[in-house]
């Protein structure tokens, strides 16, 4: 079986976003993991409208062409790490919208989070964990929370994320968890597919 493919989803599209910094940092750590392949998925490249379909794609095919391509892209991956900025105690609208524009493509795959902003993005991450559970994902316990002091130090150029050992430890634990669950769930989905084919034969 091929190695699980993990998407690092950039959860902000603002011109002045901080997201590129944690994205490149977690991607470097993830790419050092021998058991997974990693791809950065930038929501700037997916100009989804605000959700305006007749129903979730779990129940009715999406009509929007970008949404259809987005669902195919999500389906390529075996697990996800989301960068999660916190706006007003929640995740960015663009990230929640992108999550809502797919359905079955997220099922039975692990989700991990790199939060930043007020209280390390913890409230945004909690919101996203709830959405992940509803989508039958497996949100992993380990997470990265870039607290406000660390955020400012990096933003102002005083430090780099890789200089902060407590964050490196959290990132390694996060990647290890996502990689483990991605491998297990990829095998389980493959077994389910074989069983379904046998029943249909």
Automatic annotation (TrEMBL):
A molecular function annotated in GO for this UniProt entry is: oxidoreductase activity
SUPFAM superfamilies referenced in this protein's UniProt entry, alphabetically: Flavoproteins
Q: InterPro entries under this entry?
A: Flavoprotein-like_sf, FMN_Rdtase-like_dom, NAD(P)H-dep_reductase
All residue ranges annotated as the NADPH-dependent FMN reductase-like domain in the record: 4-145
Top-rank taxon, per record: Bacteria
Q: Name one GO cellular component term.
A: cytosol
What is the protein name for this chain? FMN reductase
> Could you tell me which species this protein originates from?
Mesorhizobium hawassense
